[in-house]
Amino acid sequence: GQISVLARDQHGCRFLQRKFDEEGAKAVDLCYDEIIAEAVELMMDPFGNYLVQKLIECCSDEQRSGVLRAVSVVKDDSLDGLPELVTIALNTHGTRAVQKLIEMLNSPEEVSLATNALRPGVVTLIKDLNGNHVIQRCLQRLSSEDNQFIYDAAKVHCVEIATHRHGCCVLQRCIDHAIDEQRRPLVLEIASQALVLSQDPFGNYVVQYILDLGLSWANGEVMTQLLGNYAELSMQKFSSNVVEKCLKLADASLEKNRNTVVREIMQSPLLDRLLMDPYGNYVVQSTLTVTKGVLHTELVERIRPHLPLIKNSPFGKRILRLLLEN
């Protein structure tokens, strides 16, 4: 009758964990009913979560399924209508217990219980300091098929997730763990939103990540989406990095796209501003580095009239030095 009280105490919790190690199934059976009755609260307790983790490791498959069922319900007084497992996963202590639960899933029934409980809150979890680790553990431990609920949400809520501090990291891990049938639609969705994402403090990293994958069709789509905006994007802190990456792509099949970007920049009425801009000057430097032949000559001729203007600019001097070297 005192198991849940002991579980919330540092020394009591350690005592019970030790008993699980020493006496195995016998100790688990004695404590199981009392722990399961307060599983939700214990998983979010500073000490109780460790006991639940130990229980999940030591218990039978049937008992583990019982834990899952206990934490997969939606409370009658729940304001958000989310299963308890989502609430636990959002908690500082609970996230560790849920990750342990995912690690120990041992049957299709258990996986189904867990994924069905997480599904309604997947976007909330992805964007949460604690919850995002639970989704990442799913990506690491479950099959591609079982993780489909994550990919469905990531595609539908791509911009919302990519422009979030934690979400942008999870989206990159989604790409890492995906099979081709999941990766292609997700990458295509990200590429189609490149103009919005490139200008975002977090979204720009997601666009750069897919550019680094070396997929010609995806890179071509990103570059197409940015057309008509390259000069403006070059003068923004985050998007200028994306423009530079587009210019430096090594794929020979994208040379036509790259030349289009260079022409748009050098023919822009904003060229004089670009030459002296803290971010834009680096883009112009990249255009000088990646071009050759007739296009390079034309680029130099476009810059030449602005030389008197940029001589006294700290950023312009870099371009001047690059022109002299060439």
UniProtKB/TrEMBL annotation:
Residues 1-326 form the PUM-HD domain. SUPFAM superfamilies: ARM repeat. Pfam families: PUF. Keywords: Repeat. GO terms for cellular component: cytoplasm. Coiled coil: none annotated. The keyword Repeat applies. InterPro entries: ARM-like (IPR011989), ARM-type_fold (IPR016024), PUM-HD (IPR033133), Pumilio_RNA-bd (IPR033712), Pumilio_RNA-bd_rpt (IPR001313). GO terms for biological process: post-transcriptional regulation of gene expression. Pumilio repeats lie at residues 34-69, 78-115, 117-152, 153-189, 225-263, 264-301. Transmembrane segments: none annotated. GO terms for molecular function: mRNA binding. SMART domains: Pumilio (SM00025). It comes from the Eukaryota. Sequence-specific RNA-binding protein that regulates translation and mRNA stability by binding the 3'-UTR of target mRNAs. This is PUM-HD domain-containing protein. It comes from Ostreococcus lucimarinus (strain CCE9901).
